[in-house]
Specification:
The protein has 303 residues and is of the alpha+beta class. It has 13 helices and seven strands. It has two domains: 174 residues, Up-down Bundle (Butyryl-CoA Dehydrogenase, subunit A, domain 3); 121 residues, Nuclear Transport Factor 2, Chain: A (Roll). Helices cover 56% and strands 13% of the residues. A seven-stranded mixed sheet has the order 2-1-6-5-4-3-7, with helices on both faces. α6 runs antiparallel to α7. It is elongated. It starts with a helix and ends with a strand. About 13% of the residues have low confidence.
């Protein structure tokens, strides 16, 4: 093959990859729950494609989907290993925070908007964090992207029957979560309002009543730099973090659900994202990264 032909083939391959990018990023985001990690997985899939003989690939889209799924699975397993090491070292969760994609009118580029339209919500991502890497992959690839269990089996290194069982276990856990974002908006508002009132008033008992026994508090890096504590699990430990605080936090509409925002001078500094199940708060995520906050225009809910 001449240099000209080789250049033409690489340009064609790059064009074909770009045509698949939004889909691949959607797959990776659903698996990983983080836009930045999803971008890393997509980039790795391109590197693997560029090192392969594309002429022997009959279904390029299917091949790339499998590759990005395998890369994402490796990243999930690495994340789980780090978490286990953290727990064995100091007994604390590493507080990994799934990154929600926050909507803003006239905001991000078309690729991000397409991903937003096809994304899972933060509430589901929190549930997915409780699954094993193999369960998460089997559930997402089959139930969301309709990938056959024969193909999933090859990715997770199990039999098709075992892959089906992985997806089934994950499905039961997801269905059992009964996430409030799909339920009554008024109920969300009542719970969040009561939480903020109990926090401001230092009412420890009221906070405990609102929190699930296994509630988890997570923070992103910027919130951690501001002194917020993350990786905290359990109702009493989380209640202690909020008792007597949130004095100026206000209820706000966040990504279609009720949350809260701390916005001194009208500038959002920290967003409080709540995940609820069965009328209890099961997770609180503090988001303070400026880049992520720039994507958000929270609507204050007065009264």
């Amino acid at each position: 093959m001449s240099r000209r032909d080789d250049k033409d083939e690489r340009e064609w391959l790059a064009q074909q990859f770009e045509a698949q990018r939004i889909h691949l990023r959607s797959v990776a985001y659903r698996l990983l729950g983080s836009p930045s990690e999803a971008d890393d997985a997509v980039q790795e899939s391109w590197l693997r494609l560029s090192r392969s003989d594309a002429r022997g690939i009959e279904n390029l889209g299917g091949w790339l989907t499998t590759v990005v799924a395998r890369v994402s699975l490796d990243m999930l397993r690495s994340r789980a290993t780090r978490r286990e090491e953290s727990l064995s070292a100091d007994g604390a969760d590493d507080g990994h925070l799934s990154d929600p994609i926050l909507s803003r009118e006239g905001g991000s580029n078309p690729e991000d908007e397409a991903l937003l339209a096809d994304s899972v919500g933060l509430a589901l991502l929190v549930v997915l964090e409780t699954l094993t890497p193999a369960e998460r992959l089997a559930f997402v690839m089959h139930d969301v992207f309709s990938v056959p269990f024969d193909e999933i089996a090859g990715i997770v290194g199990r039999s098709p029957t075992a892959a089906r069982q992985l997806a089934s276990r994950a499905r039961r856990r997801v269905q059992g979560a009964a996430m409030i974002p799909d339920a009554d908006f008024t109920q969300q508002r009542v719970v969040v309002d009561a939480f903020l009132a109990a926090s401001r008033g230092g009412d420890f008992g009221a906070l405990l009543a609102l929190l699930d026994p296994d509630v988890v508090l997570r923070v992103d890096g910027a919130a951690g730099d501001m002194g917020a504590s993350g990786g905290i699990r359990g109702a009493e430990a989380v209640a202690r973090q909020f008792a007597g605080r949130a004095q100026v936090a206000r209820m706000a509409l966040l990504d279609g659900a009720v949350g809260a925002v701390w916005a001194p001078g009208g500038e959002p500094r920290v967003v409080f994202s709540f995940t609820l199940a069965r009328g209890k708060i099961v997770a609180i995520d503090l988001i303070a990264d400026p880049e992520r906050l720039r994507q958000l225009d929270p609507a204050i809910l007065d009264g």
